[in-house]
Structures are given as C-alpha cells and as structure tokens.
Design a protein that fits this description.
By secondary structure, the protein is an alpha+beta fold. The chain has 15 helices and 20 strands. The longest helix is centred in the middle third of the chain and has 19 residues, at about 175-190. The chain binds adenosine-5'-diphosphate.
C-alpha cells in the first residue's frame, strides 16, 4: 500500500481525498497555488508545497512543478482529483514515467474516452446504444448538413475535446446550420485547442442518468447503480439524486451490467462513470468520465462504499473486496451544489466568508473546504460546498434537504442556496417530473410570471 500520496488539486475535493487518506493511514502532500495557501486541504494535509501563482496554467496545470513537488516530498502516488489534470493523458504518462503511481486509469483509456468521437466508436463496437448522429468527426459544414438532414433537426454540434458543457451548439434548422457549425468549431478551437466537432440528434426531453463503475486490475468490474443529474443549468449539474426516480431494478441492472461489461472488455481500471441520456424508456451513451465525479458522494451514501478509498486500493493493485451481488442500495440520497454566485444572475461572487455554519444532524453530509474568514478566490470554479442528504425515501430526503439548506449559513458572499430552496418547492421537482431542459425552462417561466405579476 502507498505510504504517501500527493494530491494535485484544491478545494473540497482535495480535502475529500485527504480525509480518505487519513482513514487509510496514508500520509498526504497537497500542492497549491499562492491563492490557496490558506486552503483547508493545505491545513489538513501532512505537508504542502506551493507550486505557482493563482492562474491554473501556472500551478494546478503545471506538470513540471507538480512532478518536482512529488520528487521533493518523496510520495508513492499522485491523485489528480477532479478537473485540472485528472483526464490529461500526458500528465498520466509523465507521472508513471517518473516512477509514481497515477491514481486513475491507464493513459490509453484516458486518451480513448477523452476524444468523444473515439469514445462513441469504441462504445458502439462494444454494444452500447448511441444517440443517432455522425459516425465520427464531421469534416466541414456541407458534410454536417447532409448528416443533420438525415437525422432530422434540431441537431447538436459538439466538440470532440469538449467538457463541462462547453463547445456545444444547437442548430434548429437548415438555415441556421452553417453558422452554428462554424461557431461551434471556432469555440472548440479556442477553448480546447482542437476544433474538431461531431453531430448528434438533439433530444427534446431526456434525463441525464449515469452509471458509477469501479474496476480493479484483475478483471473485476462492478457498477454501483445510477445517478440522476437532470437538473442542470448551462449543461452544468445543479442537483443530483441516487437512485434515479422511477428507474426500476430491472432498468438499473440492464444498463449497469451493460456498462460494467463494456468496462471489462476495455480492460478498464479505477473509478469511472458512463453517462447516458434516457428518453422514452431508452438509454443512449453520452460519454465516459475516466475519473471521480463531483457527485460520487450520493452513490457513497446509498451503497455505503467509500469510492476514494476503493480508488486508491485498486490503484495500489488490490483486488475489489466485493462482487456485484454484494452491492446493496439503501435509501435515497440527494446533493445540492452550492456555488459562490448570485442566485438569479449566476454571476460569480468571490470574497471573504464572514460567517459560516454547516448544517448537521442525521443523514446530512457537507463536503466543503469553507471556514470562517476564508477567502473564496475568483480564479477557480465557483462551487464551494456540496450539501448531501441521505434518507429512507425520496420524500424524506426532500424534507431533510430543505431543513439542511435552511440551517446552512454562508455570509460575506452570495450563494445559490435560495435557488436550491426554490427548486425544492417546485411541484414538478417534488414528483420528479423533470428532464435536462426542465430547470432552465422553469426559471424562465417563473421570471416571466414574476414580471407579469409586477405589472
Ligand atoms: P460535456 O462533456 O461538455 O459535459 P456531454 O456530452 O456530457 O458534454 O453533455 C453535457 C450535457 O449536455 C448533457 O448532460 C445534456 O444535458 C446535454 N446534451 C448532450 N448531448 C445532448 C443531446 N444529443 N441532446 C440533448 N442534450 C444533450
């Protein structure tokens, strides 16, 4: 087993990994930028190393600086966390070339799943159902238009290197297609340095349902059930639930076994998530994330399995301590992503936390690196806390989440807690009548109602 792990990340996820390591008796080194010198993970870790100034390019994405820190502190392995270098093939290769273990999959798997056109090809060959669209990269607008006409408008133009909902454009008609195509490609080039795009039919009312996978290096793969992440804004997840409301045990086993089977055939190792869109009773493969997900927490609550611990164990070469039949799903969990942002305009709201009180009590978990007096930097992602509840039923989880949100005090900055409270009150949300477009449509409708009422 590893004696010492370097965590190449920040914020709540760095803290989450420090916590798992402590419980496993593993020492930790947290690297940080100058902006995060007072971060909670830095305080909790055994050692810390400053690797550069605030901009990510010069710190959290600075591979030589991270590897130097790993050498100086003499660690055995590097955990990349979420985002930053977690799905960077080159980083993974360099970590291994320098004699450290990369806590994640092989560089080949990262590369394969990181290119979405290749990922879709791979999954098609392994028997996963796909959203109708282009067979691979679309060379130019003419070719794209032909494919778009075949699968029918609206279509979605997506970047092969895309992530975080960026580099996506909907084209609703033939007239619109050319300009959308050019825009999507230019945006992808600017954001990811790769302008290649592919096409998918734009689904009108799908839910986002994803399968959590866990694989060791001995050919054992299990699925840990599904999560519903349909409540989104700008293609970003806002609320997640486990299990997905209305999904039957047969549907779970069907898609879970299929996903696990694909991972096994690929020789996949580590934690991973296969994302699907689910519409009219059918699942369509979207993408595979070859890392931990932010919302891994709700799966942990329902299965009782510490995913970070298991991720570290399989990276160290241990076989999984359980089989599919041993995995039980207990109760209902829900996560609200708390962001430092205005609850209506969504403009980021960095700044100093003047008062912080985390909710508690039975079935409440808060994964956050916040504390009284902490400065939320403006440089990074705006998510500052994950509020997670676990209860026997969805109804109880809803009540518990409301109670926990009301208990939560974060002063000095603005947060989207008021938005979460509003979502919880929406009748359609309460009965799980939602899809990926629901939140944006509901917010627009409520705004219009408010405007009319004010007249
Ligand atoms: P990213 O890697 O940028 O997150 P994804 O392919 O995972 O991109 O898609 C992100 C989100 O975009 C999905 O959760 C869904 O809300 C929406 N989306 C993606 N593909 C489609 C599609 N074909 N039709 C409708 N919505 C889609």
């Amino acid at each position: 087993m590893f004696k010492k792990i370097l965590i190449a990340n920040r914020g709540e996820i760095a803290l989450r990994i420090v916590r798992a390591c402590k419980e496993m008796g593993i020492e930790t080194v947290v690297v940080h930028s100058t902006a995060d010198a007072n971060g909670m993970a830095v305080r909790m870790a055994d050692e810390s190393v400053c690797i550069g100034p605030a901009p990510s390019r010069q710190s959290y994405l600075n591979i030589p600086a991270i590897l130097t820190a790993a050498s100086v502190t003499n660690v055995d392995a590097i955990h990349p966390g979420i985002g930053f270098l977690s799905e960077n093939e080159e980083f993974c290769r360099m970590v291994e070339a320098h004699g450290f273990t990369f806590i994640g999959p092989t560089p080949e798997h990262i590369a394969k799943m990181g290119d979405k056109a290749v990922a879709k090809d791979t999954m098609r060959a392994l028997g996963l159902p796909l959203i109708p669209g282009s067979p691979g990269i679309v060379r130019d607008a003419e070719e794209g238009l032909k494919i778009a006409k075949d699968c029918g408008f609206p279509v979605l133009i997506k970047a092969v290197a895309g992530g975080g909902g960026k580099g996506m454009k909907v084209a609703r008609s033939e007239e619109e297609f050319k300009s959308s195509f050019t825009m999507a490609s230019a945006e992808a080039k600017a954001a990811f340095g790769n302008g290649d795009v592919y096409l998918e039919k734009y689904l009108s009312h799908p839910r986002h349902i994803e399968i959590q996978l866990l694989a060791d290096s001995h050919g054992n793969v299990v699925h840990l059930g599904e999560r519903d992440c349909s409540v989104q804004r700008s293609h970003q997840k806002v609320v997640e639930e486990c299990p997905a409301p209305g999904i039957t045990a047969e549907q779970r086993n069907f898609i879970g076994d299929l996903a696990a089977d694909c991972a096994r055939k690929m020789g996949y190792r580590g934690v991973g998530t296969m994302e699907f869109l689910f519409e009219d009773g059918k699942f369509y493969f979207l993408e595979m994330n070859t890392r931990l997900q932010i919302e891994h927490t709700i799966t942990e609550m329902v299965t009782g399995i510490d995913l970070v611990r298991e991720q570290i164990m399989v990276a160290a070469g241990h076989p999984l301590p359980f089989r599919q039949k041993d995995i039980k799903f207990d109760g209902h969990a829900m996560e609200c992503r708390v962001n430092a942002e205005h609850p209506e305009t969504f403009i980021p709201s960095p700044g100093k936390i003047t008062r912080y009180h985390a909710p508690g009590g039975l079935g409440v978990r808060v994964d956050s690196a916040l504390y009284d007096g902490y400065m939320v930097p403006s440089t990074y992602d705006s998510m500052v806390a994950k509020l997670i509840v676990h209860a026997k039923t969805r109804e109880e989880a809803l009540m518990r989440m409301q109670r926990a949100l009301e208990e939560c005090v974060i002063e000095g900055i603005q947060t989207n807690i008021p938005l979460h409270l509003r979502i919880l009150q929406e009748p359609e949300f309460r009965v799980a009548q939602f899809n990926i477009h629901w939140l944006e449509k509901t917010l627009a409708r409520r705004k219009e109602e408010g405007r009319k009422a004010a007249l």
